[in-house]
Write a structure and sequence with these properties.
By secondary structure, the protein is an all-alpha fold. The protein has one domain: Hydrophobic Seed Protein, CATH 1.10.110.10. Helices cover 57% and strands 0% of the residues. The chain is built from 6 helices and no strands. Helix 2 runs antiparallel to helix 4 and helix 4 packs across helix 6. The radius of gyration is 13 Å and the shape is globular.
Length: 120
């Protein structure tokens, strides 16, 4: 738990760094954007506003199929690493009002994520 809090605080401190559309998307980028969502994804409750903003920024950053699949794989790894609840992860786009093209799911097949796909 203490390690999760430290990771989350580091992510929150660096969340101001935005992903530029011309840059390749990395797991660090995804982690920074979704860092504010970690407590919600693990424990439920209400996601903070910075979480929803990060989700919006992530969707805006994944402009190619390669980026979407890369972001999907990053989310898949994070879901396993941080033991994210599947129910909170699946509800997050609706709660934030964001149509997103990737799942935060430890079991998703990221090779099936396409450029024009939207889950919520």
């Amino acid at each position: 738990m203490k390690g999760d809090v430290i990771v989350m605080l580091a992510m929150l401190a660096m969340v101001q760094f935005m992903v530029q559309p011309s840059e390749a998307l990395s797991c660090t980028d995804v982690d920074l954007l979704l860092g504010p969502c970690l407590n919600y994804l693990k424990f439920g409750g209400k996601p903070p506003q910075d979480c929803c903003k990060g989700l919006e920024r992530l969707e805006a950053a994944v402009t190619t199929q390669v980026d979407r699949q890369a972001a999907c794989n990053c989310c898949k790894i994070a879901a396993r690493t941080f033991q994210i609840r599947e129910d909170t992860a699946s509800e997050l786009p609706d709660i934030c009002g964001v149509k997103i093209s990737i799942h935060i799911d430890p079991n998703v097949d990221c090779s099936t994520v396409s450029l024009y796909q939207s889950y919520k």
